[in-house]
Each structure stands twice: as structure tokens, then as C-alpha cells.
Amino acid sequence: MAQVPQRFFDALAVRSWCGLALRALGRAREEIDAINVYPVADGDTGTNLYLTVESAAAAVEAVFAGHEASGGRREEASAAGGAGARGAGPGAAGASGGPSLTDAVQAMAHGALIGARGNSGTILAQMLRGMAQVLGGRDGGARADGTGLRLALRHAADSARQAVAHPVEGTVLSVASAAADAADGTEGDCGAVARAAYEGARAALAATPGQLPVLRRAGVVDAGGRGLVSVLAALVEALTGEAPEAGPAAYRPAAPLGGAHPRVRTAPLDGAPVREEAVHPEDAPARGEHAGPDAPADDPADDPGASGLPGTCDLPGAGPAFEVIYLLEADDDAVTRLRERLDALGDSLVVVGGDGLWNVHVHVDDAGAAVEAGVEAGRPYRIRITHFGQGDVHTAGAGHPPRARAQRAVVAVVPGEGLAGLYSEAGATTVLARPGEPPASGELVEAVRRAHAREVVLLPNDAELRHTAAAAAEQARAAGVRVALIPTRSAVQGIAALAVHEPGRSFDEDVVAMTSAAGATRYAEVTVAEREAWTTAGICQAGDVLGLIDGDVAVIGADVTATARTVLDRMLAAGGELVTLVLGDDAPETVAGHLEARVREAYLAVDTVVYRGGRQGSLLLIGVE
Fold first, then answer.
1. Residue 511 main-chain phi, psi, to 5 deg
2. Separation CA 392–CA 449 (nearest Å)
3. What is the largest distance, in Å, between two alpha-carbon atoms of the chain?
4. 45-69 and 223-240 helices, crossing angle to 10°
5. Among 490, 497, 456, which residue's Cα sits nearest to residue 473?
6. Four-residue CA torsion sign, 336, 337, 338, 343
7. How far, in Å, CA of 65 to CA of 353, rounded?
8. Is residue 496 a contact partner of residue 625, using CB atoms and an 8 Å limit?
9. Quick one: CA torsion of 390, 47, 359, 434, rounded to 10 degrees?
10. Sheet of 453-459, strand order
11. Of 327, 276, 333, nearest to 125 (Cα)?
12. pLDDT for 75-91, tens place per residue?
């Protein structure tokens, strides 16, 4: 549907921009992944940018949903005030019950920060934060004009560059700076500024192979910069109602030695499919020839870790072995010391954020030391460690054959590190869900990609994730993967399903058996109430112990062990053969022993198995099969 053009930048424009950017990156994701050769050829830049923007878009949608939920009361107040309550102007969303520009850009920046993935995603998150710092304080937070957008783009580029320990030209940083420079020289409304930024970014993207030898040898433009061009194209469309015209990257790399005609990926800048062109030696710059006045010679010595072979990309293993990413709660002084510590440990260091919350990204050989540095600085969480050496279809090259695709895999969402280990030992690919931080559909799609199988069984393990999991399954099917979604509502149901998983039988038979096992497992959890509330078992107060059976509060108590025993007795009253207990970090040490003893004494034919779930949110999960 065509976008409605507008001359200013307000909350609705932010919402539209996020949605269009997410759609554009979704179309271009595979193409961007395929041209990802710097700083590590791990083939995930497009996916990481998509996940980062998905988190930003979800945060903006949550702000709008919150205002819409209270809209009824505000409309009544406006009606009582008469016509004078209307006519606040098109940009004053906050005055009419919707979020203000400040609300929207702050949500966008925070969502990107907590959802940032990879080097480029982390840099994009800092750019959005830089824009929010400027736009959130202008015109009372209602809307911004062309001048405001110019300042925001400038601050975005500058803050992103400052967040990178050792900025490198020919990357997304160069593209961002060029976009800001082009915007600085433009007069007019927001649409004109956005279009100038897009055109400046597009030109800078085409020049990236002349700035970075590894890109030139591979015959590609910078993947992060390519993603930023898509994001800026979405900004143009959000503000003008028209998508900018696509144009191929205007760069052709040198021909390999021997005069062969390489096949060069020509990347349209609007997310359209990649096409290949034959490049003739007479059309290509000679080896060592500068593509621009500041471009370096194509010398492998200028690019440590490069293979030096024409037509090949850098491969994982030439640099650090691990990518470490985590969110960190820490003060500014501690983060300054952390930057110095991590800079000595590895490379590709990017630390973004502020106001006590940071996103840390670094490539290191000692992942444990990188995490320990975070612990010394503050409280790290949502820790992700990726081993570059594992490789996948995108990181294969000469001497590195692609990993064989498995026939079948299981992808499961798990609420704690302990369960993640348990599921992984059983062969599942896991997605860790922190309390209050459910995974987005893009994270589930990425997990399906990591599983690298023709057939995938998806276990969401949470009733609230059914729609997210369904969306992920549809995206994976569109990519050619056969996906079956089993609607597990708890991790204990997932354990039951995984226990009967048999890759050797037909896909349909396996799915039926796993679905049956999950459906035959009743589930419960014991947790602590955070506030006073009405429940199906009566009114609870903050601090009460709650026992939930099949998602509904069944018991309200004061003692964890006593409440858990009551819940277990109610579940076993209908019969059962196996009790599964999953203990959270905050559960009393004695609760498992008491419940095991209770089962032995009162239910002689029932077995019990106990697992440690880690920081899973609930004190205790219970499953009865």
C-alpha cells in the first residue's frame, strides 16, 4: 500500500519507517548475508540487521499499543472538552492520545539496543540512538523538520563512529558519514533530506570496494553498508510515499590473474534479487589501481588475514575464533575501563548505549575473558557466544567445503541456560528466552537457518509464543525448509516431545509422536507474585507464592515447598507415570528432595527426574506424563 507523504518527522513516520525497513531487510537479507566478507566472512550481516530492526520495530509497536489501550479514556475526555480538544496539529501525536516523537524514537533506539546482533547490527543500534538523542528533544518532542532530521543523521553517523574502537573506511561507517554529509548540504523538508542521505549513501556504498581490499578481491560492496542503504531507502519511502529508484552498485572489481571473466554480484539497492554480470578485463581497473583518490592499492599486505588470492574471500580462522555479545548494566567509568580491557583482548570492538545500559560486541580468542571483563564492569546478561570456526553454507571457500545439510533438526525455545544445555545435549538447536524478553520471529528463523536441515520441528515451549513461532515457521517454509510447529506451552512438554524424537522415521510419523507426547504432559510452574492481582484462585498479594497448572493459577501460598507439593498432588490425582522437575536458580535447595520423597511415599509407580534450569524466571517447572 502506498505511503502517505508528509513534510515532517513524527511518531507515525517512525512507525512507518521501522515497518518499511524491516520489510526491505527481509527481502534483502539473503543477498546481504551472501556478500558478507568483512570483518569476518560468517554470512550473517543481513540476518543480524534484520533482527536488530525487528526488535526496534517491536518496541515502537509496543508504544503505540500502550497508547491505543488507553485511547478510549482519552477520547471520552476529549469529547467532554468539546471541539477545543481537537485540532492539535498533524505532528502532535501525544496531544491526541498517540505517542509523541520522543516516545517513538526512544522506543526505537532502546529496542535496537537490546536486540542488536553482530557488528553491523550493533553499529546500526548506535545510529538509531544518536538520532533519538537529537529528535527526542526538538519542538517539544512532537515532530521534527528537515533541519532536525539533518542534525539527527549527522549525530547518528558521528556517534556510531565513536562507538567503534578502530574505525575502518569502506564499511558501514563510511556509508553513514556520506549519508550525513549529503544531508548537510540539502535544504528542504524531511523528504528532501532523506532522499539526499539515501543518494549519498548509495554512492558511498559503490565506492567501498576501492577502500577495502577484501571487498575488492571478493567483488562485492560492504554488507553492512548495503543494509544501511536499504534502511535509508525505507526512510525516503516513509516520508515521501515513494520508494526510491533502484540502481546497481557502480563498482566492478579487477579481473583475476589469467584474464578470466569473473562473475560479479551486482547488488540492486532496493532489495531486489541479485544478478550476475560478466566483467571484461578491459572494463576493470588494473590490479593495484586506485578506484578513487583515497583508495588503497589492492595489496594483501594492507589487509592482515586476507588470503591474497583473487576472487576469494577472507575465511574464519584468520582472526579471533569467537564473537561475544552481551547487554551490560554498568556506569560510564566502568565502561571506559571495559573498552580498554576488551580492546587488548581482540578486535571488532563496538560498545554502544548509555544511561546505564550498553550493548557490547567483540571478536576474541578467549570468550571467557571477554565475559569476565563484563562481570567486572557490571552485570552482563543475554550473553551470546558464536564460534566462527563452526562455519555454515556462507563461510565455505577454498579448502572449506560447506557443512552438509542435515535431514532433520529440532529447534526449541528454552527459558534458562540449564535447559539450553539439556536440549542441546539431546541434539536440539536452542533459542534462549530470558524472563520478560521473548524472542522475536527473526531469532527463530535464524535458529532454523543455524540448524541447517531440510526438515525442522519447532518447539516454542510457551503459549505466548504461538503467533511468533507460526510467523517464523512461515518464513522458513518460504525459504524451502519443511517446518512442523508443535504447540508446546512449557519446556517440560518440549522435554517430553524431544524424548520420543526419532530422526530415522518419516517426518510425519515423528511429528505425530512428538505432538502426542507433548499433549500427554500436564505442566505447572511455581513462581512469586510481583504485585496484587485477581487470579482464578482468588486475590494474591505481592510476594505470595503462586502455583499455576496448565497456565492458570491454582494455588496461592506462603511457602515454596508447600505450594509446590500441593500443585504436584493435584496433578498426580489424575494419574501419571513420570514427574519432571526443573529447578530455577532461586528455588530453595530442599524443594527437589521434598518433592521426590513425596512421590516415593504416595505414588509408588511414578518415577521422578530432576534438572537444573538456571535463570528461567520461574522457581520451579513441573511436568507430569
1. -65, -40
2. 9
3. 86
4. 30
5. 456
6. positive
7. 25
8. yes
9. -80
10. 429-432, 406-414, 453-459, 482-485
11. 327
12. 444 444 443 333 333 33
**What angle is formed at CA 588 by the lines to CA 583 and CA 593, rounded to 5 degrees?**
75
Place of cell 471520552: 76
CB-based contact 580:623 (threshold 8 Å): yes
On whether the CB atoms of residues 253 and 338 are closer than 8 A, the answer is no
State how far Cα 569 lies from the chain centre.
41
The C-alpha cell at 622 is 513441573
Distance CA 615, CA 418 (A): 8
Q: Which grid cell is 117?
A: 546482533
Q: 9-43 pLDDT, tens per residue? A: 899 999 999 999 999 998 888 889 889 888 877 67
pLDDT surpassing 70 at residue 70? no
Q: Which residue has the cell 563510511?
A: 174
pLDDT for the residue 228: 95
Q: Which long-range contacts (CB under 8 A, 24 or more apart) does 595-599 make?
A: 595/561, 595/564, 595/565, 595/568, 598/565, 598/568, 598/569, 599/568, 599/572
Which residue type, as a one-letter code, is found at position 102?
T
537: cell is 484462585
The angle, 0 to 180 degrees and rounded to 10, between the axes of the packed helices 591-602 and 560-572 is 30
Q: In 3-state terms, what secondary structure has residue 293?
A: coil
Three-state DSSP class for residue 583: strand
CA-based angle 257:268:41, to the nearest 5? 55
Assign 570 to helix, strand or coil.
helix
Adjacent-strand bridge partners of 380:
328
The three three-digit cell numbers of residue 264, written as one number: 560479479
Burial 12-35 (b: 16+ CB within 10 A, else e): bbbbbbbbbbbbbbbbbbbbbbbb
Distance in angstroms (rounded) separating the CA atoms of residues 327 and 55: 14
